[in-house]
Amino acid sequence: MTTPVIECNRLSVELGGVMVLDGVTLSVCKGDYLGLVGPNGGGKTTLLRVILGLEKSSGGSVSVFGALPGSFPERIGYVPQRLFFDREFPISVRELVLMGRLSKKKLFQHFNRIDREKADAALGVAGLERLADRRIGTLSGGELQRTLIARALAGEPELLLLDEPTASVDPQMKTTIYDLLDNQKKKLTIVLVSHDIGGIKDHVSGIATLNTTLYAPRDICL
Ligand SMILES: Nc1ncnc2c1ncn2[C@@H]1O[C@H](COP(=O)(O)OP(=O)(O)OP(=O)(O)O)[C@@H](O)[C@H]1O
């Protein structure tokens, strides 16, 4: 039997004295495309942050690629819910996507030709060639989301974690983003946080619910 890519067993997380996740059991295997849904404040982002090793668990266990979270950052691509940046900051779409190669570099190592080729390939996958030289502060919400996905893909991850990439984008851009992910799902394991159950149900291989009484009380278990 192969080791699951992500395995949580009765995972609990306490933040600021509040139990945000309590007894979460979840197994994500290689090639899965998991939709993770739940109410606002249900702990979806927190779960992604635990998987990334950015937040500590307070009970239970969690392993990623069979090791402690944070052990293999170069194998994970992350598309955050928001990107906080100065809209005047003079960085282009191509340069932001190139940042996705940082996890593959050693300290102070420069980007090389291969990094630039991988970044350009990711730009192509996300349909961003036309916008490559645009400053990121001038992008629409949907264009910025696709740039963040391209940045994550530039690092050639095995596991892609996305936190509500289709929030506040129009229906056409949602379709573009779902199609983009569909084209990647044969190569990657994907966890997609979303409120759009209707939109994701035809794309994902499974849906897990978090902290909702509508689907399953306080537990997710595939
Ligand atoms: N550092 C922190 N300290 C205290 N509480 C926190 C911290 N980070 C998050 N929380 C709380 O934990 C709960 C879960 O937050 P989280 O962002 O994981 O939810 P979410 O399901 O992603 O929500 P949304 O759908 O609104 O994005 C929220 O009540 C939030 O206020």
From TrEMBL:
Keyword Transport included in the entry's annotation: yes
Domain ABC transporter: 6-222
SUPFAM superfamilies tied to this protein: P-loop containing nucleoside triphosphate hydrolases
InterPro entries for this protein: AAA+_ATPase, ABC_transporter-like_ATP-bd, Metal_Ion_Import_ABC, P-loop_NTPase
Alphabetic keyword roster: ATP-binding, Nucleotide-binding, Transport
Gene Ontology molecular function: any one: ATP hydrolysis activity
Protein family membership: Belongs to the ABC transporter superfamily.
Protein name: ABC transporter related
Organism of derivation: Pelodictyon phaeoclathratiforme (strain DSM 5477 / BU-1)
